[in-house]
User: Fold this.
Amino acid sequence: MGKVFRETSRPSSSSSCPASSSPPTTTSTSITETVNGTHHFKITGYSLSKGIGIGKYIASDTFNVGGYSWAIYFYPDGKSVEDNAAYVSLFIALASEGTDVRALFELTLLDQSGNERHKVHSHFGRTLDSGPYTLKYRGSMWGYKRFFKRTSLETSDYLKDDCLSVNCMVGVVKSHTEGPKIYSIPVPPSSMGHQFGRLLESGKGTDVNFEIDGEIFAGHKLVLAARSPVFRAQLFGPMKDQNTRCIKVEDIEAPVFKALLHFMYWDSLPDIEELTGINSNGSSTLMAQHLLAAADRYGLDRLRLLCEANLCKDVAINTVATTLALAEQHHCFQLKTVCLRFVATPGNLSGDSLLYQALFYNVL
Assistant:
């Protein structure tokens, strides 16, 4: 029997190859940035340090920035013999093991007159022609042999009560490469303040009461002690109040103490209108004035700064005298400056010479 052959169709060459596609594109980013840190170094007894010897220094405590230890070296008689003790020298030194550590530096000698005419030498905020400074090994330094002429320094506003104040900022250069992320996890903002605020509102677990003008406010000792060094000493220190079940608080009004507690739990300022039932700029300013004093009394620095910022925005003819007095009493230097500028502005206090005299002869 003969064989039967059937021809089967073949795909054309054009259909035999899959459609061409672009290769996948991936990305990565190299990020170079600085890890910054600041150290304040106060040098007391400057006159006693003179004569220590050329090349000998007074060192700050070590501080950590970017994974390395650093120290500030101050040479009262200068670092170089050729200068014959005519200059003081100031340096920042790598105080831990490291090789080719690249960093930016800033050395600031603080003007202690309040005029803020600081002597600043800085890598920050300017173009670096040769890039960051490189420290090769432990003990490598950056600074100035002729930082300041001694005779000029000793008659300047940088020296006060035989003390010098130096700020040093270090920015350690770090690099890393980021590739495409294969995940996306949204992280909600912290709700800690909300949770502690709800704890205060619920009244659960309170173990201390405060009486102000016959009104009772309940709180939690541990929360208050964690937030305020004054409450910590009052509730747990060696001189703590014996009757912590109910502590009488003097020289503060109940709404102000309520606002203080609100901040300590919520970490935010309360709604002044809701707190006082009064809707006016005057009530907000008055509350901020009282709250600033309370914040300073209980060591709540962030609250004090918030009140200072709010008062700077609301300086007015009928409040500037009280606000200026508060700024002076509680060392709010920016608020004091704002008040003085307001007073000095032509027309602000015209026709009110008594207020003007009170400001400049009784407050200042």
Remarks:
- The radius of gyration is 32 Å.
- The chain has three domains: 32-175, 192-302, 315-364.
- The mean pLDDT is 86.
- DSSP finds 13 helices and 13 strands in the chain.
